[in-house]
Amino acid sequence: MGERRVVITGIGVRAPGGSGTKEFWELLVNGRTATRRISFFDPSPFRSRVAGEVDFDARAEGFGPREIRRMDRATQFAVACTRDALADSGLSPGAVPPHRIAVALGTAVASATSLEDEYLVMSDGGKDWLVDPDHLSPYMFDYLSPGAMPAEVAWAVGAEGPVTMVSDGCTSGLDAVGYAVQLIREGTVDAAVAGATDTPITPIVVACFDAIKATTPRDDEPALASRPFDATRNGFVIAEGAAMFVLEEYEAARARGAPVYAEVSGYATRCNAYHMTGLKKDGREMAEAIRAALDEARLDRTAVDYVNAHGSGTKQNDRHETAAFKRSLGDHARRVPVSSIKSMIGHSLGAIGSIEIAACALAIKHDVVPPTANLRTPDPECDLDYVPLTAREQRVDTVLSVGSGFGGFQSAMVLQGLGGAAR
Amino acid sequence: MSDAVITGMSVASPIGLGTEEHWKSVLAGRHGIGEVDRFDVSGYPSRLAGQIRGFEAADHLPGRLLPQTDVSTRYALAMARWALEDAGVEPGTTAGPGAPADYDMGVVVSSAQGGFDFTHREFRKLWSQGPEYVSVYESFAWFYAVDTGQISIRHGLRGPSAALVAEQAGGLDAVGHARRTVRRGTRLVVAGGVDSALDPWGWAAQLAGGRVSTAREPERAFLPFDRDAGGHVPGEGGAILVVEDADSARERGAPRRYGRIAGHAATFDPPPGSGRPSALRRAVELALADAGRTAHDIGVVFADAAGVPELDRAEAEALRAVFGPYGVPVTAPKALTGRLYGGGGPVDLLCALLSLRDGVVPHTAHTARVPEDYGLDLVRDEPRGLPVRSALVLARGRRGFNSAVVVTAPDS
Amino acid sequence: MTEPMDMNTLRRILVACAGEDEAAAPAGDILDVPFTDLGYDSLALMESAARIKQEFGVDIADDVLTELETPRALLDLVNGSVRAGRPAEGVRVA
Questions:
Q1: Which tens digits make up the pLDDT trace of B217-273?
Q2: Which family, according to the similarity comment (chain A) (predicted)?
């Protein structure tokens, strides 16, 4: 079979501050922030009251009343992005046999929002331990075991190949795409719709990050709350969103004249086997994931034009990651621009890895590096070029995107433009 | 391409903690189904579950892990340890020459329900007491990746790892992905699945799925392929397998090989009402092709066995199409445990490997009358002595997931 | 305001919030054994601090919590503020 290569031919994004891919990219290149005080519920009893919320109107997105009842918010996001990505790719239904199409959907907390809504109904606002099965939504099983999420994506695509949910916490968005890339490379399928969705802005999730003080208490300045790599950072801003991609085997994509954003040329994931939430200072395992991803792409580290950081804005993450970049990229770490779009749209847990892949693909397309917003006070421990405040026009051919998550997951992906000919 | 062999395994199920205890129960037809006793189940239309009994978490886990783990994660951690011991691997302690270390070992575990009992308690604290009563551990004890992460940490496994969710099919997908990971160069992957959601909320949610039996007699509640099939009994537990590169196993002198993961395929059904056929048959055909086997080579099929007439019929149809009427012995030992969601496929896989080892196919207990038109050679009443060399294991997940694994004898 | 916290109470809270580790001799005198030696990480201490707040009304600030090295230091801090009826530095009394 030789080396099968995988390319991104379609993108769909729902992120805070913009409803589609175009608005998403405009927000990033302008360095605008879309974090705000939580409006979905009264956040006053909580420590962290800011979030990256998506202004999403399911009806305007074309969902009918039955679909709206059937799909929870996270699923609606994924399906809306899937529709966009398919249209963007120009891949016509039937062009690839159904069993040769895979779906890999990433998510960290799946149907958390719907679970919480149902919990309140069944437990009479939390008063009763025993829940009344008669008051149960028929979809409750899908919220417990979220098979309906990837199913809805598969149905929207007409996919009958492998369909799965990849739920590796906050690296899910990278890992779901990485999973699908492996399926295409090995020849199991010829195309895939992959990406991730999460809608965690709900009291239980906000409370659990409050408890470990991972989210920022900078509640008075919502727009300035997410400060990756800044000396004054004090936690991440929770967010929601989704991004989905059409991935195709390169020769097939070329044969049909598909628009190609980038090739996914390297992917690797490792675990730190250290702590469910903590990170070692040395960044060893993330560095290993980066090294392995570059290896798979057969690239020297100096080829990297831009690093899309995990950059969550917690004290420990940004230090950990800076160490990982130095460890894996050597001197090049000091030369290559590194930025975190979480500064603008917050951290949508499992979804963010895919949203960041979208940003990387667009950076390659437009030859622009998105900035790290809110970075005004340099931290001596984070001493790389984080592209503060302002986007940078430069040649972007090769991008490294990384993620880090609870459970110890560390993932890295390499995207490459195909040069003038294929673009 | 390198071979992926199973060098260690373990199970925690309603009929046994550990491989041999479980297998003994399977062959004896001893079921583990009874009335749920973790809360007052009397107000619910369905009351029977396959509960694990006699598992004292403190006997199997360091005390430090108890406050931060859901019951399902405790099973996962206990099983991972047993499976690694079975494989003769104790990461971090015996890392001598030839032993895998560090990035050589990964984890891929499927969970369909996450740490649900744990999270139910935290939801309750949040809404009855307030946000500051929510545990710091909720941030990870709930999510689907918790078993993978905790196993990685406890045993120092730093290789490529993942958590997959595909309802009941996810456990086999995890084993398939473990094989993929081994083939891509990782020496050993701890793989499998586990689930438990037997708290009042988890129970109600399972009932909302509409497929849980309302029967009151344990022997009559879950009757796969029976004409009286009336739904399934939910269970808890799962299995963990050590999937290893054959060369790696040889290099380190692995004490045993239960078999090879020869083939895997996953497919997804078209949307309801599309008029297109179920994709289960194609999953079977693709798994056989992946294994380089024909239907003729397969000695036994461990069926998904939904226990819902239309689903049983669909599975029988797929098997008939591939193997011919009465073309292969079919069995469903899960009749004894209930359906274990993410854990179900791996438990069947473990049983299939033991069938290869012992030359015996367990029977489907309780099922008595199989509709003639299913055309199934269902192994009933008692185990059947058969020198099985290859087995096919099937799992389906609600909403359309199909997963198929072919295992073969280690020397095949 | 509540009774001062004794070592047994603290031990109960620690075990409930962070578990017991046979290797770290929980039954012995742990008053001056560093938390790190007892195997209590930052999460364990955060969970314990939340419980102390609920039971004793003493809210230990994050940066103070991370500085506490031993059970004795934690007891002194909590009881100092309980006795005084007013917050010690870095402590709020609910």
A1: 999 999 999 999 999 999 999 999 999 999 999 999 999 999 999 999 999 999 999
A2: Belongs to the thiolase-like superfamily. Beta-ketoacyl-ACP synthases family.
Tell me the Ramachandran region of residue B195: left when phi exceeds 0, alpha when psi lies from -120 to 50, beta otherwise. beta
Confidence of residue A124 (pLDDT cuts 50, 70, 90): confident
Strands A238-239 vs A50-52: parallel, antiparallel or unpaired? parallel
Pairing type for strands B188-195 and B105-110 reads parallel
For residue C92, what pLDDT is reported? 53
Q: Are A247 and A157 in contact (CB under 8 A)?
A: no
Same domain for B251 and B274, yes or no, is: no
A22 touches chain C (CB under 8 A): no
Can you tell me the distance from the alpha carbon of A200 to that of A208, in angstroms, rounded to the nearest whole number? 11
Any C CB within 8 A of A277 CB: yes
Q: From 3.40.30.10, 3.40.47.10, 1.10.3720.10, 3.30.470.20, which CATH number describes the A6-111+146-422 domain?
A: 3.40.47.10
**pLDDT 10s digits, B142-167:** 999 999 999 999 999 999 999 999 99
ipTM over 0.90: yes
Chain C interface mutation, best of B128, B136, B140, highest count of C Cβ atoms under 10 Å: B136
Nearest CB to B67: which of C19, C26, C54?
A: C19
Query: What whole-number distance in Å separates Cα of residue B233 and Cα of residue B46?
Result: 9
CB nearest to C62's CB, from A213, A277, A278: A213
Please check whether residue A311 is in contact with residue A202, taking contact to mean a CB–CB distance below 8 angstroms.
Answer: no
The answer for residues whose C-beta is within 8 angstroms of residue A367's C-beta and 6 or more apart is: A393, A394, A395, A396
Chain C touched by A389 (CB under 8 Å): no
Segment among A15-24, A130-139, A279-288 with least mean pLDDT: A130-139
φ, ψ (nearest 5 deg) of residue A44: -60, -30
State the DSSP H helix or E strand holding residue B397, giving kind and residue range, or none if neither: strand B390-397
B2 touching C, CB under 8 A? no
Interface of B with A in 349-388 (CB under 8 A): none
Cα angle A328, A330, A334; round to 5 = 115
| B162, closest residue in chain A (CA to CA) | A168
Judge whether B391 and B260 are in contact, CB under 8 Å: no
Q: What is the pTM of this model?
A: 0.97
**Which positions in chain A touch C43 (Cβ < 8 Å)?**
212, 276-278
Residue C21: which domain range? 7-93
